[in-house]
């Protein structure tokens, strides 16, 4: 793992080579995690290994303000997050060929936005129960605001530290710093959901993997109806927990979409 310069920030990155060595013609697979308590580790322990063993180079990174990456006071809107990604790909020399983007939750919104504003950098998009349409901006802003107030007034991090729960205390302190020390909530609130017109403008293949009980599924159905090339995979028995509770089925769908070169080792 390393801190990689990207547009004035240092982003915490992890790269995994594709099984069998570098393949210059194969697009890298870039994973985009969700908000606040999430970071690259959610993919490292689930999808990154199988995708690497299937022959694809993998890039994981902590987005600005998350994990071990720098935490500037502002710049948490979608456009700036895409600019961070573009700068990172350039810094690592991965901007020579389009990459596959795999985004979980809010990370999927960033992946889709990237495909809309920089389609030249995108080979395909995989959405994992991602926020797309409806009142999700307002709902997410409300959820984050409540969490921020709770962290600020309950001093949960201090309580956890006093109880000897150091890892949880560290994660809580980082969430507190992100929610109460940056413009993240304001930047998310200023964003707008995607529209049918946005979906119709997509010119890259999309795979949308959602849980059958997810409240975000209606947006995925709209995407599948309007986008020129979108496959919707609905996994039974789960909601907004596809990555953690339906990892096997999700991995199968992802590897099937990415394809594996002859002789690849895809054992999990």
Question: Can you put this structure into words, describing what you see?
Answer:
Helices cover 44% and strands 17% of the residues. The chain has an eight-stranded mixed sheet with strand order 1-2-4-3-5-6-7-8, with helices on both faces. Helix 6 packs antiparallel against helix 7 (166-181). The model is unreliable at 260-268 (pLDDT under 50). The protein is globular. It is of the alpha/beta class and 268 residues long. It is built from twelve helices and eight strands. Helix 4 (106-117) links the parallel strand 5 (99-104) and strand 6. It has helices spanning 41-44, 48-53, 78-91, 106-117, 136-154, 156-162, 166-181, 184-190, 196-201, 217-226, 242-245, 247-258, and strands spanning 2-6, 9-16, 29-32, 58-61, 99-104, 122-128, 206-211, 230-235.
Features:
44% helix, 12 helices, globular, alpha/beta, 268 residues
Structural topology:
Layout: E1 2-6, E2 9-16, E3 29-32, H1 41-44, H2 48-53, E4 58-61, H3 78-91, E5 99-104, H4 106-117, E6 122-128, H5 136-154, H6 156-162, H7 166-181, H8 184-190, H9 196-201, E7 206-211, H10 217-226, E8 230-235, H11 242-245, H12 247-258
Parallel strand pairs: 3-4, 3-5, 5-6, 6-7, 7-8
Antiparallel strand pairs: 1-2, 2-4
Question: What's the short story on this structure?
Answer:
This protein has twelve helices and eight strands. It has 268 residues and is of the alpha/beta class.
Overall mean pLDDT stands at 91
User: How far apart, in Å, are the first and last alpha carbons?
Assistant: 22 Å
| Uncertain residue ranges | 260-268
Q: Helix/strand/pairing class, anyone?
A: alpha/beta
The biggest sheet, with number of strands, parallel, antiparallel or mixed sense and barrel status, is:
8 strands, mixed
Number of helices: 12
Name the shape in a single word: globular
Radius of gyration: 18 Å
The protein's oligomeric status is: single chain
Strand order, largest beta sheet: 1-2-4-3-5-6-7-8
Task: Kindly state the number of beta strands.
Answer: 8
**Helical content band:** 40-55%
Please provide the ordered H/E string of secondary-structure elements.
EEEHHEHEHEHHHHHEHEHH
Strand content: 15-25%
């Amino acid at each position: 793992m390393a801190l990689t310069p990207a547009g004035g920030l240092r982003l915490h990155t992890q790269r995994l080579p594709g099984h069998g060595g570098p393949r210059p013609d194969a697009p890298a697979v870039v994973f985009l995690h969700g908000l606040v308590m999430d970071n690259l580790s959610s993919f490292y322990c689930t999808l990154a290994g199988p995708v690497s063993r299937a022959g694809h180079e993998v890039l994981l990174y902590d987005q600005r303000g998350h994990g071990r990456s720098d935490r500037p006071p502002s710049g948490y809107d979608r456009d700036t997050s895409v600019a961070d990604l573009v700068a990172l790909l350039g810094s690592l020399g991965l901007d020579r060929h389009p990459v596959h983007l795999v985004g979980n939750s809010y990370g999927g919104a960033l992946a889709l936005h990237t495909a809309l504003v920089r389609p030249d950098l995108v080979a395909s998009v995989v959405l994992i129960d991602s926020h797309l349409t409806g009142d999700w901006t307002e709902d997410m802003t409300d959820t984050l605001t409540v969490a921020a107030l709770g962290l600020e007034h309950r001093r949960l991090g201090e309580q956890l530290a006093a109880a000897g729960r150091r890892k949880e205390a560290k994660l809580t302190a980082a969430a507190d710093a992100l929610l109460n020390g940056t413009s993240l909530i304001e930047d998310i609130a200023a964003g707008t959901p995607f529209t049918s017109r946005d979906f119709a403008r997509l010119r890259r293949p999309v795979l949308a993997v959602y849980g059958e009980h997810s409240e975000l599924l209606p947006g995925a159905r709209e995407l599948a109806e309007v986008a020129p090339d979108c496959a919707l995979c609905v996994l039974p028995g789960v909601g907004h927990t596809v990555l953690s509770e339906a990892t096997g089925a999700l991995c199968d769908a992802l590897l099937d979409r990415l394809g594996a070169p002859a002789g690849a080792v895809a054992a999990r």
